[in-house]
Amino acid sequence: MDYLRIWADEDGESHFEDVTLDRVVNPAERGVAELWVSPGVDVDRVQFLTVQAVDQVPAAHNAPRRQFVVFLDGWVRITTSDGETRTLPAGSVVLAEDEHGKGHVTELEPGVRRVLQIPLDSEEVLG
Nearest-CA neighbor of 62 among 14, 122, 107, 109? Predict the structure, then answer.
């Protein structure tokens, strides 16, 4: 499982980074598929969101904290302040870390969407 990172440079410009996690392959056990396991990540909590994305007006915003965001259904379109846009399918994982600067714009497929927010433990260092 890889994820897309959104981060801000010293000038406040937000950018994307594709992150590939290291994996250890656990041999399959009887009745269990082979598992590819990443190192653990310390998190603060998990929040379950229902987003009413019917009449949305997307605007630039910053991440409120360092957090993984998992889009469980529908597509999501994210644009960073450097002008790059990515449209991601359901199931995508994003690490939002642009807590300062110009932010990014998030547009969800219209409708009622389910999202997980997983704030990182304040001491967690990734990469």
Answer: 14
12-53 per-position pLDDT tens digit? 999 999 999 999 988 778 888 888 889 888 999 999 999 999
Nearest to 95 by CA among 124, 54, 75: 124
3-class DSSP assignment, residue 115: strand
Model pTM? 0.87
List b or e across 25-50, with b for residues whose CB sees 16 or more CB atoms inside 10 angstroms. Answer: eeeeeeeeeeeeeeeeeeeeeeeeee
C-alpha gyration radius of the chain = 16
Q: What is the DSSP letter of 61?
A: B
| Domains of the chain and any CATH numbers | 3-119 (2.60.120.10)
